Amino acid sequence: MPHMPDLPFSEEQKQYLQGFMAGVLQRGGLTFVGQTADGRLTHEPEQAVRDLATPPPAETLYGTPVDRLCKQERIKLAQHPLDIWDRVLENAAAGRFPEGDDVFRYKALGLFYVAPAQNAFMLRCRIAGGFLSSRQAHGLADLAERYGAGYLDLTTRANIQIREIGARDAANVLMALADLGLTSRGAGADNIRNITATPTTGFDLQELYDVRPLVRSLYYYILHSRDLYNLPRKFNVAFDSGGVITAAADTNDLAFVAVRVEEGHDVPPGVYFRIELGGITGHGSFAQDTGFMVPPEACIATAAAIIRVYLEHGDRTNRKKARLKYLLERWGVERFMEAVQERLAFPLIRFPRASCAPRPPRIPGAHIGIHPQRPEGHYYVGIDVPVGRLQASQLHALADLAERYGTGELRLTVFQNLLIPGVAEENLEPLCAALRQLGLSPESTSLRQGLVACTGNAGCPYARTNTKAHALALVRYLEEEAGIDIDQPLNIHLTGCPHSCAQHYCGDIGLLGVKVKTSAGETVEGYDIVLGGGLEADQGLARVVARGVPFEEVPPLLAHLLHTYLQQRQENESFAAFTRRLDPAALEALITDSKPSQTP
Fold first, then answer.
1. Percentages (nearest 5) of helix, strand, coil residues in the chain
2. pLDDT at 569 exceeding the cut of 60
3. Which among 36, 87, 362, 421 could bridge 380 via Cys, Cβ 3.0 to 4.6 Å?
4. What is the distance between the alpha carbons of residues 202 and 195, in angstroms, rounded to a whole number?
Protein backbone atom coordinates (compact mmCIF):
# COMPACT_ATOMS: atom_id res chain seq x y z
CA MET A 1 0.00 0.00 0.00
CA PRO A 2 1.29 3.52 -0.70
CA HIS A 3 2.25 5.65 2.27
CA MET A 4 -0.72 7.72 3.43
CA PRO A 5 -0.25 11.31 4.66
CA ASP A 6 -1.15 12.22 8.22
CA LEU A 7 -4.10 14.35 7.11
CA PRO A 8 -7.08 12.76 5.34
CA PHE A 9 -7.53 13.40 1.63
CA SER A 10 -10.16 15.87 0.50
CA GLU A 11 -12.92 14.59 -1.77
CA GLU A 12 -11.23 16.30 -4.70
CA GLN A 13 -7.92 14.58 -3.92
CA LYS A 14 -9.65 11.21 -3.64
CA GLN A 15 -11.27 11.64 -7.06
CA TYR A 16 -7.96 12.66 -8.55
CA LEU A 17 -6.12 9.64 -7.14
CA GLN A 18 -8.87 7.29 -8.24
CA GLY A 19 -8.55 8.66 -11.77
CA PHE A 20 -4.79 8.42 -11.58
CA MET A 21 -4.73 4.79 -10.49
CA ALA A 22 -7.42 3.87 -12.99
CA GLY A 23 -5.28 5.45 -15.68
CA VAL A 24 -2.23 3.48 -14.53
CA LEU A 25 -4.10 0.20 -14.74
CA GLN A 26 -5.82 1.05 -17.99
CA ARG A 27 -2.59 2.07 -19.70
CA GLY A 28 -0.80 -1.10 -18.75
CA GLY A 29 1.48 0.03 -15.93
CA LEU A 30 2.32 3.62 -16.84
CA THR A 31 3.65 5.12 -13.62
CA PHE A 32 4.45 8.62 -12.43
CA VAL A 33 7.83 9.90 -11.33
CA GLY A 34 8.43 13.33 -9.74
CA GLN A 35 10.34 15.05 -6.94
CA THR A 36 9.29 16.11 -3.48
CA ALA A 37 10.22 19.48 -1.96
CA ASP A 38 13.34 17.97 -0.34
CA GLY A 39 14.53 16.43 -3.60
CA ARG A 40 13.40 12.81 -3.10
CA LEU A 41 11.74 10.92 -5.93
CA THR A 42 8.09 9.91 -5.66
CA HIS A 43 5.55 7.95 -7.68
CA GLU A 44 2.64 9.92 -6.14
CA PRO A 45 1.75 13.12 -8.02
CA GLU A 46 0.29 14.83 -4.94
CA GLN A 47 3.71 14.71 -3.25
CA ALA A 48 5.59 16.26 -6.17
CA VAL A 49 6.49 19.92 -6.50
CA ARG A 50 6.98 21.97 -9.62
CA ASP A 51 10.00 23.92 -10.85
CA LEU A 52 12.29 22.46 -8.17
CA ALA A 53 15.39 22.95 -10.29
CA THR A 54 14.45 26.34 -11.73
CA PRO A 55 17.44 28.65 -11.29
CA PRO A 56 17.12 32.10 -9.74
CA PRO A 57 15.57 34.61 -12.11
CA ALA A 58 18.10 35.95 -14.60
CA GLU A 59 18.31 39.60 -15.55
CA THR A 60 19.01 38.88 -19.22
CA LEU A 61 18.75 36.01 -21.67
CA TYR A 62 21.57 36.07 -24.22
CA GLY A 63 21.79 39.81 -23.67
CA THR A 64 18.05 40.54 -23.92
CA PRO A 65 16.53 41.97 -20.72
CA VAL A 66 14.01 39.52 -19.30
CA ASP A 67 11.29 42.16 -19.15
CA ARG A 68 11.55 42.55 -22.95
CA LEU A 69 11.19 38.85 -23.79
CA CYS A 70 8.16 37.75 -25.78
CA LYS A 71 5.61 35.43 -24.19
CA GLN A 72 7.12 32.19 -25.54
CA GLU A 73 10.59 33.11 -24.27
CA ARG A 74 9.20 33.76 -20.79
CA ILE A 75 7.48 30.36 -20.90
CA LYS A 76 10.77 28.62 -21.71
CA LEU A 77 12.61 30.63 -19.08
CA ALA A 78 10.11 29.64 -16.40
CA GLN A 79 10.61 25.95 -17.19
CA HIS A 80 12.55 24.26 -19.95
CA PRO A 81 10.16 22.27 -22.19
CA LEU A 82 12.31 19.14 -21.89
CA ASP A 83 11.77 19.16 -18.12
CA ILE A 84 8.04 18.41 -18.10
CA TRP A 85 8.03 14.63 -18.36
CA ASP A 86 6.42 14.30 -14.92
CA ARG A 87 3.63 16.62 -16.10
CA VAL A 88 3.15 14.56 -19.27
CA LEU A 89 2.76 11.42 -17.14
CA GLU A 90 0.43 13.11 -14.70
CA ASN A 91 -1.81 14.57 -17.40
CA ALA A 92 -1.91 11.29 -19.32
CA ALA A 93 -2.92 9.34 -16.23
CA ALA A 94 -5.70 11.84 -15.53
CA GLY A 95 -6.84 11.94 -19.17
CA ARG A 96 -6.04 15.65 -19.37
CA PHE A 97 -4.73 17.73 -22.24
CA PRO A 98 -2.12 20.38 -21.43
CA GLU A 99 -3.31 23.79 -20.36
CA GLY A 100 -1.91 27.28 -20.48
CA ASP A 101 1.84 27.53 -21.05
CA ASP A 102 2.20 23.74 -21.22
CA VAL A 103 0.46 23.69 -24.61
CA PHE A 104 3.58 25.41 -25.98
CA ARG A 105 5.98 23.24 -23.97
CA TYR A 106 4.39 20.02 -25.26
CA LYS A 107 5.27 21.09 -28.82
CA ALA A 108 8.95 20.74 -27.97
CA LEU A 109 8.23 17.06 -27.30
CA GLY A 110 6.49 16.76 -30.67
CA LEU A 111 2.94 16.72 -29.27
CA PHE A 112 0.59 19.38 -30.63
CA TYR A 113 -2.77 19.92 -28.96
CA VAL A 114 -4.75 20.95 -32.03
CA ALA A 115 -8.06 22.01 -30.50
CA PRO A 116 -10.50 23.24 -31.65
CA ALA A 117 -9.82 21.67 -35.06
CA GLN A 118 -9.49 18.30 -33.32
CA ASN A 119 -9.75 17.78 -29.57
CA ALA A 120 -6.67 15.61 -29.74
CA PHE A 121 -2.90 15.53 -30.12
CA MET A 122 -0.95 15.47 -33.34
CA LEU A 123 2.39 13.68 -33.05
CA ARG A 124 5.09 15.04 -35.34
CA CYS A 125 7.99 12.61 -35.67
CA ARG A 126 11.61 13.20 -36.58
CA ILE A 127 12.47 11.06 -39.63
CA ALA A 128 16.00 12.37 -40.21
CA GLY A 129 16.63 12.81 -43.93
CA GLY A 130 13.33 11.05 -44.65
CA PHE A 131 15.12 7.69 -44.28
CA LEU A 132 12.71 5.11 -42.87
CA SER A 133 13.26 1.38 -42.40
CA SER A 134 10.41 -1.02 -43.10
CA ARG A 135 10.46 -2.03 -39.42
CA GLN A 136 9.96 1.60 -38.39
CA ALA A 137 7.23 2.03 -41.02
CA HIS A 138 5.37 -0.97 -39.59
CA GLY A 139 5.80 0.52 -36.12
CA LEU A 140 4.44 3.91 -37.12
CA ALA A 141 1.44 2.28 -38.77
CA ASP A 142 0.86 0.37 -35.53
CA LEU A 143 0.99 3.65 -33.57
CA ALA A 144 -1.56 5.23 -35.91
CA GLU A 145 -3.90 2.27 -35.41
CA ARG A 146 -3.42 1.95 -31.66
CA TYR A 147 -3.26 5.59 -30.58
CA GLY A 148 -4.47 7.65 -33.54
CA ALA A 149 -7.28 7.51 -36.07
CA GLY A 150 -5.65 4.96 -38.36
CA TYR A 151 -4.02 7.30 -40.86
CA LEU A 152 -0.70 9.13 -41.25
CA ASP A 153 0.27 12.32 -43.07
CA LEU A 154 3.48 12.71 -45.08
CA THR A 155 4.77 16.27 -44.81
CA THR A 156 6.78 18.78 -46.83
CA ARG A 157 9.77 18.16 -44.54
CA ALA A 158 9.97 14.48 -45.51
CA ASN A 159 8.35 13.67 -42.20
CA ILE A 160 5.35 11.85 -40.74
CA GLN A 161 2.49 13.03 -38.52
CA ILE A 162 0.03 10.87 -36.58
CA ARG A 163 -3.24 12.56 -35.62
CA GLU A 164 -6.23 12.24 -33.31
CA ILE A 165 -4.27 10.93 -30.32
CA GLY A 166 -6.20 10.98 -27.04
CA ALA A 167 -5.07 12.68 -23.83
CA ARG A 168 -4.42 9.38 -22.02
CA ASP A 169 -2.08 8.18 -24.78
CA ALA A 170 0.38 11.09 -24.77
CA ALA A 171 3.13 9.42 -22.76
CA ASN A 172 2.61 5.97 -24.25
CA VAL A 173 2.88 7.18 -27.83
CA LEU A 174 6.15 9.00 -27.08
CA MET A 175 7.62 5.90 -25.46
CA ALA A 176 6.39 3.64 -28.26
CA LEU A 177 8.01 5.98 -30.79
CA ALA A 178 11.32 5.73 -28.93
CA ASP A 179 11.00 1.94 -28.92
CA LEU A 180 11.17 2.14 -32.74
CA GLY A 181 14.46 4.02 -32.60
CA LEU A 182 12.68 7.26 -33.46
CA THR A 183 11.83 10.40 -31.53
CA SER A 184 9.69 13.51 -31.75
CA ARG A 185 11.87 15.59 -29.42
CA GLY A 186 12.35 19.05 -30.88
CA ALA A 187 9.83 18.44 -33.65
CA GLY A 188 7.96 21.61 -32.69
CA ALA A 189 8.42 24.97 -30.96
CA ASP A 190 11.79 26.76 -31.03
CA ASN A 191 13.96 23.90 -32.17
CA ILE A 192 15.85 22.49 -35.13
CA ARG A 193 13.16 20.74 -37.11
CA ASN A 194 13.40 17.54 -39.12
CA ILE A 195 16.58 17.50 -41.21
CA THR A 196 15.82 17.07 -44.91
CA ALA A 197 18.07 15.62 -47.59
CA THR A 198 18.11 14.50 -51.20
CA PRO A 199 15.78 11.48 -50.99
CA THR A 200 17.81 9.41 -53.44
CA THR A 201 21.15 9.89 -51.70
CA GLY A 202 23.29 6.77 -51.49
CA PHE A 203 21.93 5.26 -54.70
CA ASP A 204 21.57 8.34 -56.92
CA LEU A 205 23.23 8.05 -60.35
CA GLN A 206 24.38 11.66 -60.49
CA GLU A 207 24.88 12.81 -56.89
CA LEU A 208 28.21 14.27 -55.81
CA TYR A 209 28.22 12.97 -52.23
CA ASP A 210 26.25 10.50 -50.12
CA VAL A 211 24.90 12.75 -47.35
CA ARG A 212 23.47 10.01 -45.13
CA PRO A 213 26.41 10.08 -42.67
CA LEU A 214 26.14 13.87 -42.41
CA VAL A 215 22.40 13.74 -41.71
CA ARG A 216 22.89 11.05 -39.09
CA SER A 217 25.74 12.91 -37.37
CA LEU A 218 23.86 16.21 -37.14
CA TYR A 219 20.69 14.42 -36.01
CA TYR A 220 22.45 12.86 -33.03
CA TYR A 221 24.42 16.02 -32.28
CA ILE A 222 21.15 17.93 -31.98
CA LEU A 223 19.51 15.27 -29.82
CA HIS A 224 22.40 15.39 -27.34
CA SER A 225 22.89 19.18 -27.21
CA ARG A 226 20.45 20.59 -24.69
CA ASP A 227 21.22 24.23 -25.48
CA LEU A 228 19.96 23.72 -29.04
CA TYR A 229 16.43 23.23 -27.67
CA ASN A 230 16.12 26.93 -26.82
CA LEU A 231 16.45 28.77 -30.12
CA PRO A 232 14.75 32.12 -30.75
CA ARG A 233 12.51 30.41 -33.31
CA LYS A 234 12.36 27.25 -35.41
CA PHE A 235 15.33 26.39 -37.62
CA ASN A 236 15.40 24.24 -40.75
CA VAL A 237 18.45 22.40 -42.12
CA ALA A 238 18.86 20.58 -45.45
CA PHE A 239 21.61 18.59 -47.17
CA ASP A 240 21.62 18.61 -50.98
CA SER A 241 23.73 15.81 -52.48
CA GLY A 242 23.45 17.02 -56.08
CA GLY A 243 21.01 14.22 -56.90
CA VAL A 244 18.09 13.96 -59.29
CA ILE A 245 15.35 15.01 -56.82
CA THR A 246 15.33 18.37 -55.11
CA ALA A 247 15.60 18.64 -51.34
CA ALA A 248 14.23 22.22 -51.58
CA ALA A 249 17.46 23.25 -49.85
CA ASP A 250 17.02 26.93 -50.72
CA THR A 251 13.89 27.14 -48.53
CA ASN A 252 15.88 26.32 -45.36
CA ASP A 253 17.53 28.49 -42.72
CA LEU A 254 20.74 26.52 -43.33
CA ALA A 255 21.53 24.51 -46.44
CA PHE A 256 24.63 22.51 -47.27
CA VAL A 257 24.73 22.14 -51.06
CA ALA A 258 27.23 19.75 -52.66
CA VAL A 259 29.50 21.17 -55.36
CA ARG A 260 32.63 19.95 -57.13
CA VAL A 261 35.84 21.96 -57.49
CA GLU A 262 38.01 20.91 -60.41
CA GLU A 263 41.79 21.16 -60.80
CA GLY A 264 43.40 24.54 -61.33
CA HIS A 265 42.14 26.49 -58.31
CA ASP A 266 43.78 27.54 -55.06
CA VAL A 267 41.90 24.86 -53.11
CA PRO A 268 42.35 21.10 -53.50
CA PRO A 269 39.97 19.55 -56.05
CA GLY A 270 37.07 17.53 -54.73
CA VAL A 271 33.55 17.76 -53.35
CA TYR A 272 32.65 20.57 -50.95
CA PHE A 273 29.42 21.89 -49.45
CA ARG A 274 28.42 25.47 -50.04
CA ILE A 275 26.81 27.23 -47.10
CA GLU A 276 23.46 28.89 -47.80
CA LEU A 277 21.57 30.83 -45.13
CA GLY A 278 18.24 32.52 -44.44
CA GLY A 279 15.62 30.66 -46.46
CA ILE A 280 12.05 31.28 -45.31
CA THR A 281 9.78 31.49 -48.32
CA GLY A 282 6.70 32.26 -46.25
CA HIS A 283 8.48 35.53 -45.45
CA GLY A 284 9.60 36.09 -49.02
CA SER A 285 13.21 34.87 -48.94
CA PHE A 286 15.25 32.03 -50.37
CA ALA A 287 18.51 30.98 -48.74
CA GLN A 288 21.46 33.01 -50.07
CA ASP A 289 24.91 31.74 -50.85
CA THR A 290 27.36 33.06 -48.24
CA GLY A 291 30.43 32.82 -50.45
CA PHE A 292 31.86 30.08 -48.23
CA MET A 293 32.14 26.33 -48.49
CA VAL A 294 33.52 23.51 -46.34
CA PRO A 295 34.68 19.93 -46.94
CA PRO A 296 32.17 17.24 -45.95
CA GLU A 297 33.93 16.39 -42.67
CA ALA A 298 33.55 20.01 -41.48
CA CYS A 299 29.79 20.30 -42.07
CA ILE A 300 28.60 19.30 -38.60
CA ALA A 301 31.00 21.57 -36.70
CA THR A 302 30.09 24.41 -39.05
CA ALA A 303 26.37 23.78 -38.53
CA ALA A 304 26.88 23.79 -34.75
CA ALA A 305 28.66 27.15 -34.92
CA ILE A 306 26.03 28.70 -37.21
CA ILE A 307 23.15 27.54 -35.03
CA ARG A 308 24.82 28.84 -31.86
CA VAL A 309 25.48 32.29 -33.35
CA TYR A 310 21.78 32.40 -34.13
CA LEU A 311 20.94 31.00 -30.68
CA GLU A 312 22.78 33.83 -28.95
CA HIS A 313 21.91 36.75 -31.23
CA GLY A 314 18.46 36.04 -32.71
CA ASP A 315 15.57 38.29 -31.69
CA ARG A 316 13.74 37.05 -28.58
CA THR A 317 11.38 40.02 -28.29
CA ASN A 318 9.36 39.74 -31.51
CA ARG A 319 8.30 36.32 -32.84
CA LYS A 320 7.62 37.76 -36.29
CA LYS A 321 11.25 38.89 -36.59
CA ALA A 322 12.92 35.98 -34.81
CA ARG A 323 13.93 33.73 -37.71
CA LEU A 324 17.53 33.69 -38.96
CA LYS A 325 16.57 35.77 -42.02
CA TYR A 326 16.04 38.81 -39.82
CA LEU A 327 19.34 38.48 -37.98
CA LEU A 328 21.05 38.34 -41.38
CA GLU A 329 19.18 41.48 -42.42
CA ARG A 330 20.32 43.31 -39.28
CA TRP A 331 23.93 42.16 -39.40
CA GLY A 332 24.60 41.30 -43.00
CA VAL A 333 25.98 37.94 -44.13
CA GLU A 334 29.61 39.03 -43.79
CA ARG A 335 29.35 39.95 -40.11
CA PHE A 336 27.38 36.79 -39.39
CA MET A 337 29.97 34.56 -41.01
CA GLU A 338 32.75 36.38 -39.14
CA ALA A 339 30.99 35.43 -35.90
CA VAL A 340 30.74 31.84 -37.13
CA GLN A 341 34.44 31.78 -38.01
CA GLU A 342 35.34 32.96 -34.49
CA ARG A 343 33.78 29.77 -33.12
CA LEU A 344 35.62 27.41 -35.44
CA ALA A 345 39.14 26.01 -35.02
CA PHE A 346 39.53 25.64 -38.81
CA PRO A 347 39.12 28.20 -41.58
CA LEU A 348 36.02 28.45 -43.69
CA ILE A 349 36.88 28.40 -47.38
CA ARG A 350 35.90 31.51 -49.31
CA PHE A 351 35.38 30.46 -52.92
CA PRO A 352 33.24 31.90 -55.73
CA ARG A 353 30.24 29.81 -56.58
CA ALA A 354 30.77 30.52 -60.26
CA SER A 355 34.15 28.78 -60.05
CA CYS A 356 32.54 25.49 -58.97
CA ALA A 357 31.87 22.91 -61.67
CA PRO A 358 28.33 23.06 -63.10
CA ARG A 359 25.98 20.88 -61.10
CA PRO A 360 24.01 18.08 -62.73
CA PRO A 361 20.44 19.28 -63.35
CA ARG A 362 17.52 18.04 -61.29
CA ILE A 363 14.99 15.92 -63.12
CA PRO A 364 11.50 17.45 -62.75
CA GLY A 365 8.98 14.89 -61.59
CA ALA A 366 11.64 12.32 -60.63
CA HIS A 367 9.94 11.78 -57.28
CA ILE A 368 7.22 9.84 -59.11
CA GLY A 369 7.67 6.82 -61.38
CA ILE A 370 10.34 4.22 -62.14
CA HIS A 371 13.92 5.48 -62.35
CA PRO A 372 17.34 3.79 -62.59
CA GLN A 373 19.68 3.84 -59.62
CA ARG A 374 22.90 2.30 -58.38
CA PRO A 375 23.74 -0.57 -58.55
CA GLU A 376 23.08 -1.13 -62.23
CA GLY A 377 19.97 -3.16 -62.95
CA HIS A 378 18.07 -1.69 -60.01
CA TYR A 379 15.43 1.02 -59.80
CA TYR A 380 13.68 3.21 -57.31
CA VAL A 381 9.92 3.57 -57.58
CA GLY A 382 8.36 6.91 -56.65
CA ILE A 383 4.79 6.44 -55.42
CA ASP A 384 2.03 9.00 -55.77
CA VAL A 385 0.39 9.56 -52.35
CA PRO A 386 -2.49 12.00 -52.92
CA VAL A 387 -1.92 15.07 -50.68
CA GLY A 388 0.31 12.91 -48.46
CA ARG A 389 -2.47 11.00 -46.68
CA LEU A 390 -1.83 7.26 -46.04
CA GLN A 391 -3.99 4.78 -44.23
CA ALA A 392 -2.12 2.68 -41.67
CA SER A 393 -2.98 -0.45 -43.65
CA GLN A 394 -1.34 1.10 -46.73
CA LEU A 395 1.85 1.89 -44.83
CA HIS A 396 1.97 -1.66 -43.48
CA ALA A 397 1.64 -2.95 -47.04
CA LEU A 398 4.29 -0.54 -48.37
CA ALA A 399 6.71 -1.73 -45.69
CA ASP A 400 6.04 -5.33 -46.75
CA LEU A 401 6.63 -4.44 -50.40
CA ALA A 402 9.89 -2.66 -49.55
CA GLU A 403 11.07 -5.83 -47.83
CA ARG A 404 9.88 -8.19 -50.56
CA TYR A 405 11.01 -6.25 -53.63
CA GLY A 406 13.46 -3.60 -52.39
CA THR A 407 16.07 -3.09 -49.70
CA GLY A 408 13.66 -2.89 -46.77
CA GLU A 409 13.75 0.90 -46.79
CA LEU A 410 11.40 3.75 -47.66
CA ARG A 411 12.47 7.27 -48.53
CA LEU A 412 10.22 10.26 -47.89
CA THR A 413 10.35 13.40 -50.05
CA VAL A 414 9.41 17.07 -49.65
CA PHE A 415 6.57 16.46 -52.13
CA GLN A 416 4.48 14.46 -49.59
CA ASN A 417 5.23 11.14 -51.24
CA LEU A 418 7.68 8.26 -50.83
CA LEU A 419 10.08 6.04 -52.75
CA ILE A 420 10.85 2.32 -52.63
CA PRO A 421 14.52 1.92 -53.63
CA GLY A 422 16.58 -1.07 -54.71
CA VAL A 423 14.02 -2.85 -56.89
CA ALA A 424 15.46 -5.33 -59.39
CA GLU A 425 14.11 -5.03 -62.92
CA GLU A 426 12.27 -8.36 -62.77
CA ASN A 427 10.40 -7.16 -59.67
CA LEU A 428 9.09 -3.91 -61.11
CA GLU A 429 5.93 -5.37 -62.63
CA PRO A 430 4.76 -7.27 -59.52
CA LEU A 431 5.58 -4.29 -57.31
CA CYS A 432 3.58 -1.88 -59.45
CA ALA A 433 0.65 -4.30 -59.60
CA ALA A 434 0.69 -4.57 -55.80
CA LEU A 435 0.78 -0.77 -55.47
CA ARG A 436 -2.30 -0.40 -57.65
CA GLN A 437 -4.15 -2.92 -55.49
CA LEU A 438 -3.41 -0.60 -52.53
CA GLY A 439 -5.00 2.34 -54.31
CA LEU A 440 -1.56 3.85 -54.95
CA SER A 441 0.40 4.18 -58.15
CA PRO A 442 3.89 4.75 -59.54
CA GLU A 443 2.29 6.81 -62.29
CA SER A 444 0.74 10.22 -62.00
CA THR A 445 -0.42 13.09 -64.17
CA SER A 446 1.56 16.32 -64.39
CA LEU A 447 -1.01 18.05 -62.20
CA ARG A 448 -1.21 15.37 -59.53
CA GLN A 449 2.50 14.69 -59.11
CA GLY A 450 3.12 18.32 -58.12
CA LEU A 451 0.07 18.69 -55.87
CA VAL A 452 0.99 19.70 -52.31
CA ALA A 453 -1.42 20.58 -49.51
CA CYS A 454 -0.94 21.29 -45.82
CA THR A 455 -3.18 19.74 -43.16
CA GLY A 456 -5.90 22.36 -43.53
CA ASN A 457 -8.63 23.28 -41.08
CA ALA A 458 -9.73 19.65 -40.74
CA GLY A 459 -6.75 19.16 -38.45
CA CYS A 460 -4.97 22.46 -37.83
CA PRO A 461 -6.24 25.35 -35.66
CA TYR A 462 -4.43 27.95 -37.79
CA ALA A 463 -5.73 26.93 -41.21
CA ARG A 464 -8.63 28.85 -42.71
CA THR A 465 -9.50 26.36 -45.44
CA ASN A 466 -9.85 22.62 -46.01
CA THR A 467 -6.75 22.44 -48.18
CA LYS A 468 -6.46 18.68 -48.69
CA ALA A 469 -10.09 18.29 -49.75
CA HIS A 470 -9.86 21.39 -51.95
CA ALA A 471 -6.63 20.16 -53.59
CA LEU A 472 -8.19 16.88 -54.64
CA ALA A 473 -11.38 18.59 -55.84
CA LEU A 474 -9.34 21.15 -57.79
CA VAL A 475 -7.27 18.60 -59.70
CA ARG A 476 -10.30 16.44 -60.36
CA TYR A 477 -12.07 19.46 -61.91
CA LEU A 478 -9.06 20.52 -63.99
CA GLU A 479 -8.50 17.06 -65.43
CA GLU A 480 -11.99 15.61 -65.69
CA GLU A 481 -14.25 18.61 -66.30
CA ALA A 482 -11.92 21.16 -67.91
CA GLY A 483 -9.87 18.55 -69.80
CA ILE A 484 -6.52 20.09 -68.88
CA ASP A 485 -3.58 17.97 -70.09
CA ILE A 486 -0.20 19.49 -69.26
CA ASP A 487 2.81 17.91 -70.96
CA GLN A 488 5.37 18.93 -68.32
CA PRO A 489 5.45 18.99 -64.50
CA LEU A 490 3.46 21.72 -62.82
CA ASN A 491 3.31 22.32 -59.07
CA ILE A 492 0.16 23.49 -57.30
CA HIS A 493 0.64 24.23 -53.59
CA LEU A 494 -2.29 24.88 -51.23
CA THR A 495 -1.57 26.24 -47.76
CA GLY A 496 -4.19 27.09 -45.18
CA CYS A 497 -2.57 30.06 -43.44
CA PRO A 498 0.41 32.47 -43.70
CA HIS A 499 2.67 29.96 -41.89
CA SER A 500 2.95 28.48 -45.41
CA CYS A 501 3.66 24.87 -44.45
CA ALA A 502 2.93 23.93 -48.06
CA GLN A 503 5.26 26.68 -49.37
CA HIS A 504 2.72 28.29 -51.65
CA TYR A 505 5.20 30.92 -52.87
CA CYS A 506 7.34 28.12 -54.40
CA GLY A 507 4.61 26.64 -56.58
CA ASP A 508 3.88 27.36 -60.22
CA ILE A 509 0.45 28.05 -58.75
CA GLY A 510 0.13 28.83 -55.06
CA LEU A 511 -3.08 29.15 -53.07
CA LEU A 512 -3.13 30.78 -49.62
CA GLY A 513 -6.25 30.07 -47.59
CA VAL A 514 -8.36 33.05 -46.49
CA LYS A 515 -11.88 33.73 -45.33
CA VAL A 516 -13.95 35.56 -47.93
CA LYS A 517 -17.14 37.56 -47.40
CA THR A 518 -19.52 37.20 -50.33
CA SER A 519 -21.82 39.90 -51.69
CA ALA A 520 -24.60 38.21 -49.75
CA GLY A 521 -22.69 38.73 -46.52
CA GLU A 522 -21.80 35.06 -46.11
CA THR A 523 -18.27 34.10 -45.02
CA VAL A 524 -16.81 31.26 -47.10
CA GLU A 525 -13.46 29.58 -47.60
CA GLY A 526 -11.33 31.06 -50.32
CA TYR A 527 -7.80 31.73 -51.51
CA ASP A 528 -5.29 34.36 -52.50
CA ILE A 529 -3.68 33.23 -55.76
CA VAL A 530 0.03 33.55 -56.51
CA LEU A 531 1.76 32.52 -59.76
CA GLY A 532 5.25 31.81 -61.05
CA GLY A 533 7.16 30.34 -58.09
CA GLY A 534 10.00 27.86 -58.37
CA LEU A 535 12.99 26.28 -56.65
CA GLU A 536 16.76 26.16 -57.30
CA ALA A 537 17.48 26.53 -61.04
CA ASP A 538 13.93 27.87 -61.51
CA GLN A 539 14.06 29.80 -58.25
CA GLY A 540 11.53 32.57 -57.86
CA LEU A 541 8.84 33.76 -55.49
CA ALA A 542 5.34 33.60 -56.91
CA ARG A 543 3.56 36.92 -57.46
CA VAL A 544 0.17 37.72 -55.98
CA VAL A 545 -2.37 38.10 -58.79
CA ALA A 546 -5.70 37.80 -56.95
CA ARG A 547 -6.94 38.02 -53.39
CA GLY A 548 -9.99 36.65 -51.64
CA VAL A 549 -11.33 34.33 -54.36
CA PRO A 550 -14.05 31.97 -53.02
CA PHE A 551 -12.96 28.39 -53.57
CA GLU A 552 -15.91 27.54 -55.80
CA GLU A 553 -14.54 30.09 -58.29
CA VAL A 554 -10.94 28.85 -58.12
CA PRO A 555 -11.18 25.67 -60.28
CA PRO A 556 -12.80 27.33 -63.35
CA LEU A 557 -10.52 30.34 -62.97
CA LEU A 558 -7.39 28.18 -62.99
CA ALA A 559 -8.77 26.10 -65.85
CA HIS A 560 -9.08 29.26 -67.93
CA LEU A 561 -5.57 30.29 -66.95
CA LEU A 562 -4.05 26.93 -67.91
CA HIS A 563 -5.94 26.83 -71.21
CA THR A 564 -4.57 30.30 -71.96
CA TYR A 565 -1.06 29.12 -71.14
CA LEU A 566 -1.35 26.11 -73.46
CA GLN A 567 -2.63 28.34 -76.27
CA GLN A 568 -0.16 31.22 -75.89
CA ARG A 569 3.08 29.67 -74.59
CA GLN A 570 6.26 29.72 -76.59
CA GLU A 571 7.99 26.50 -77.62
CA ASN A 572 8.73 24.31 -74.58
CA GLU A 573 7.95 27.24 -72.29
CA SER A 574 7.16 26.24 -68.71
CA PHE A 575 4.19 27.65 -66.89
CA ALA A 576 6.51 29.54 -64.52
CA ALA A 577 8.40 31.09 -67.43
CA PHE A 578 5.11 32.00 -69.12
CA THR A 579 3.81 33.82 -66.06
CA ARG A 580 7.14 35.54 -65.42
CA ARG A 581 7.36 37.08 -68.89
CA LEU A 582 3.93 38.65 -68.48
CA ASP A 583 3.85 41.93 -66.62
CA PRO A 584 1.69 42.14 -63.46
CA ALA A 585 -1.13 43.93 -65.26
CA ALA A 586 -1.36 41.25 -67.94
CA LEU A 587 -1.36 38.49 -65.33
CA GLU A 588 -4.05 40.17 -63.28
CA ALA A 589 -6.10 40.66 -66.43
CA LEU A 590 -6.02 36.92 -67.09
CA ILE A 591 -7.42 36.34 -63.62
CA THR A 592 -9.91 39.20 -63.68
CA ASP A 593 -11.31 38.13 -67.05
CA SER A 594 -11.61 34.48 -65.99
CA LYS A 595 -15.26 34.10 -65.12
CA PRO A 596 -16.63 30.56 -64.68
CA SER A 597 -18.88 31.00 -67.69
CA GLN A 598 -15.88 31.93 -69.84
CA THR A 599 -13.91 28.79 -69.08
CA PRO A 600 -13.28 26.86 -72.35
1. 40, 20, 40
2. yes
3. 421
4. 16
